[in-house]
Amino acid sequence: MYGPNIDTSFPQHFPLFKSVDKLIILMNKNSETAECLVIPSILTLYSAFECFLTNIESQIINNDNFKNKYSNSYPERPKMIDRPFVFYNILNDENFDKTSKLYDDYNHFIKLRNLITHSRLELFEWKDLESKKDIKVSINTSHIEKKEMRKLSKTTKILRDKDADKIISFLERRKLIDIQAQFRMEGFVYTIQKVKIANWANDMITNLMLKFGEDRSNPFYNL
User: Residue 158: enclosing H or E segment and its boundaries?
Assistant: First the structure.
């Protein structure tokens, strides 16, 4: 409620998370556009969660019990990869479990987002492929046996993003994709355009927000 002489606050992350929810719904309902919406959903989710953390940070700074601990322990603002765990430590006076799956997932989510926004050139230069007239030749990791992929990798010039391969290996371990990073023969963007990855990221951020007492299943997020 808001009106004259009534103090009202407007957390800006609500509409951002609503955008994330709409993207997730579209991805899971419309298979034709699903792949194209994965990366926008990851970037929007990152922005929404950063906004949420900024709101938490403001509460800490404006609280006499927390602001000195924050300013004395962290003269420089923590990086996004550390921020939720720093705030959790201050608010709960205990360290976040850094051996947990949630901690590991969040770290790789940040790396995934940074990979997307700061991507580097990848080169796949084929040297030994021949095709007959009117016959198209395509290379797809799902159509080539591992032993054949090893042969191809020896006869082609490949410059891949090593950070991308590490993240892809993580996504393999989480069973979100089935491509093997060491045999990847396509740009990483094509590899990560999977709805499973978007759903994984969304669920992870939702669970992390619960650590701060905020439930995205709350009706307020649907207003």
Answer: strand 156-159
